[in-house]
Amino acid sequence: MSELEDGKKFSEVVKTAKSLGYTEPDPRDDLGGMDVARKALILARLLGQRISMEDINVESLYPSELGPDVMSTKDFLESGVAQLDKSMEERVKAASLKGNVLRYFCEIGSAGCQVGIRELPKNSALGRLRGSDNVVEIYSRCYESSPLVIQGAGAGNDTTAAGVLADIFDLQDLFQKTA
């Protein structure tokens, strides 16, 4: 999202992210919010919430007429995603006029779970986010007014490989303890 502030077209940003391996094989999994929603579901359950995927409010960045049931990934990348350029440009400009930026956002709280685009102050931790990094802000009784912030690489081959390797080591530890 941060590259849109630099004047790049939404379709260019999506295609570049896909070519760098930052998106799912079909970028609509990311643009539709389902990749983030699946992760949010896991986190919410780890936090003790008894929710299902249907309980998560997800904002898709593309309309159903550009969905996988209507067009192939190839067609979406060649022509479909460009149909989103104008509306995204307008949203970026509207946010900028208020001193804000757009970020893809997930919130897990007592009121439920939401995934989608949100306007945020430019100087906030999420507003300063650039490229493929991710930020997690943790609010609690101890971190009520100033959240605990965790930031790091959120996409790419190295990041994914490191995550898979960590999962393999966790499984190895689990099997050694039960053997």
TrEMBL record:
InterPro entries: Bifunc_Aspkin/hSer_DH (IPR011147), HDH_cat (IPR001342), HDH_CS (IPR019811)
An annotated Gene Ontology molecular function: homoserine dehydrogenase activity
Pathway listed: Amino-acid biosynthesis; L-methionine biosynthesis via de novo pathway; L-homoserine from L-aspartate: step 3/3; Amino-acid biosynthesis; L-threonine biosynthesis; L-threonine from L-aspartate: step 3/5
Superkingdom of source: Eukaryota
Reaction(s) this enzyme catalyzes, per UniProt: L-homoserine + NADP(+) = L-aspartate 4-semialdehyde + NADPH + H(+)
Enzymatic class: oxidoreductase
Cofactor entry: a metal cation
Classification via Pfam families: Homoserine_dh
Transmembrane segments: none
Name this polypeptide is given: Homoserine dehydrogenase
Organism for this UniProt entry: Eleusine coracana subsp. coracana
